[in-house]
């Protein structure tokens, strides 16, 4: 590259870097809203409420009925937020997400649990009363209200149910002139379907003649019993007698939600305080910034001018990720932040592979320009294979994971693709610019030293024994915990069901003090018999796990925490999961891990032309997965949806490292090599790639460590086992996978001789 072209290239690089940075932060529009502020935030970051319903009866509902139900629910939630979403999941489930709301508990109570709505005649055809006014139990006391004298089935059979909820096309609160001094009174305005119009005309004609009422019955109780004041034949009715507009709006809301064709059962609900999400974003940005600086320092110290080029490419990577997250409208979740921060560390991996190759070529006597060209050529296959296998794990997460885990998987896939682009194109282009400017001396690039060969294969039994010993300790701990009823692992609600309440107190608590002071108050407020307590080290956050709590119990708990401990509602997050959901998640988790391993085995077998490499890699990955499980078992960190995300992430990360070593073994193997020489080739290959393995792991470790130090509690609980997994993955890539491949190859060769 001529110097003039290099200068132009440098100017273009600076302008692109500045332009993308400006777009990411400020944007190009007149509103000065950059991509960073425009990224869609999930409920765990924006705060809000989510709920999952299942159609009752266990049968697959009609598609038209599902569409109608979703439409009516969407109308119902639009009043809370313009970003509220109602969508179908699978064949018989409906998800509702309302982000950015400040009083999520009140919305959940208002939304309620959709039930069946009926309009019931006061008397049957024989003049017997279908309902009467009397005392009904309310909690531990009694209150006066209307009660049914017959079952719904009996009323349906005799024709006393004149309308059902699906006959109501609309219900809205409004005002009408009361006729006294022009005063406006709140009313509920009803509109009926054509079928409902005729049925209501017949029913009101009969009721008006007899001076009777028509009771509106919803979800097991009467919500209104208006007296019919005239026959209504035009399909429009008005319910009067409300004390204020809010009361009328509440009744209209119940009628609207009760006008669903399908009976729905709540499976899962989640309420997140906005302050918790704000803290997560702030801490995530700090973790990313600190980790980024550490990586840049590392690159500059170790790789000099190449490290500078990689640092510039890493800045491009961060800016491009922000812009693409906004452009593709990917919803950013708490695990998604972890995914981005993790991929910042992994983005260095491709650069390290290339730089190691360049230094090896320089050591062979090639000039810098030729060494750079050869380095990229020889590193390409390892980079592609390693990243594709990581993408396989992420895609499995996207298909089989829940909402937040899918968010993590999406950012992971996007990060891997962008990192390959910046490493293979941007870093190469910037390096070429520096070379063209005259930075051509070997001292600016470094020269690979002849690696000291260690007998990895000869010492393999010791390495196997270390791994088996650690796994054995973990299994013993799991068996002991299981036998005493504590559970082999500290399963979260994702797998066992119940309610988890995450509380950020104004000060740190010790577990003993929580058990003595707070837990008894929780039992009193909610009526539960057992409360599990988990503190998060270094934070004020405490997680309380109980049996499933209904909305009233959750509100009572929040009220107690606010009055007794000054905890604001924004610092309380509650999640309830039914046993149906938890059982399905456990099955999906197991299937996800198996599918990921099988797909990786197939891919590696195809790329390396035999199953020996693939089998050794899968065993090493199983080793890493077990190490993560041992971490969860020993630390008693809650094992939930992120548990599977952590395992699959480590599997994807570790296979990347292993494939680089396998790629070098494949390169060093020559046709007709004797079995007696294989061990030496493996030892030399591992020695040639060990610095790359350690450096890559170190940069990834920097980022995960920043998550542990600066992240919020939920991120810490994900990052700690991830950090253990990074260490385990590095260990297995160096000390387990390659020696194991040697054993498998020897066994296959011996079988062929005997055959």
Quick synopsis:
This protein is α+β, with helices and mostly antiparallel strands and 755 residues long.
User: What spatial order of strands do you see in the largest sheet?
Assistant: 2-3-1-13-17-14-16-15
Q: Please identify which CATH superfamily of the largest domain we are dealing with.
A: Multidrug efflux transporter AcrB transmembrane domain
Task: Tell me the major beta sheet.
Answer: 8 strands, antiparallel
Query: In whole angstroms, how far apart are the ends?
Result: 59 Å
Rg, Cα atoms, Å:
32 Å
State the name of the first-level CATH class of the largest domain: Mainly Alpha
The general outline is elongated
Domain count: the total is 5
Number of DSSP E strands? 17
Might you state the CATH topology name of the largest domain? Multidrug efflux transporter AcrB transmembrane fold
Question: Architecture of the largest domain in CATH?
Answer: Up-down Bundle
Percent of residues in beta strands? 5-15%
Low-confidence stretches: none
Note the total helix count: 21
Structural class: alpha+beta
* Mean of all residue-level pLDDT scores: 83
Overall helicity: 55-70%
